[in-house]
Task: structure prediction
Amino acid sequence: MRRKIIAGNWKMNKTAKEAVDLVAGLKNQLKNIQDVDIVVCPPFTALTEVVKVIQGTNIQLGAQNTYWEDAGAFTGEVSCVMLKELGCAYIIVGHSERRQYFGETNETVNKKAKAVLSHKLTPIICIGERLEEREQNKTFEVLKDHIENGLKGITGEEAKKIIIAYEPVWAIGTGKTATPQQAQEAHSFIRGLLKELYDKETSEVIRIQYGGSVKPDNISELMAQPDLDGALVGGASLKLDSFVKIVEGSK
Ligand code: PEP
Result:
């Protein structure tokens, strides 16, 4: 039985002070949740303050990006070593906005995922097709490309620790959610790919989150699908009430 994991991707939202206010509310309202992993991924600038609030609670910290080298002349970048020191347990890798606006490729996603794993942190590796790819019936082709190239060289033992986030790009921030059937079809295909790449046992351990306009009113039916193991939530994770309802509705 895979444990559900709900992660809030706050993107470039919330100053450190605003982030503290939100996470203090989450800490209070989610304190009795025991059977779901809860992760918040604030911007880098809020990590040091947020970690102080969540210490000793059931909320874990994640970052939204990393660089693959540990240190060096890479102006503007942040490394896994730095993020681990701050208390991050998870790092999102290859979000579609990074692929779209910042030139992330399967190759850089792969380097980042391996760097995260080498520091014994958990990468949340984002994959998913764009609207035109779905319309041209290329969804499975894109998912295969993202999985095979994004996970290249990652061993079976390492793979058991990763989280895949299936995020159809057409559903991110658009209010247009994949139907539970569309999501299940993609997740089951991804699990099949993982089985081919590794083995059955490994494919059944890896958690696959769904992301794309998850809201309080669609979380339960999405989570009822057998291969959906949680959600990566953008917009609806920025408001206390909706993120609390999503975590509660995911059980
Ligand atoms: C995301 O950014 O990962 C995401 C799924 O965003 P939203 O929930 O706003 O669609």
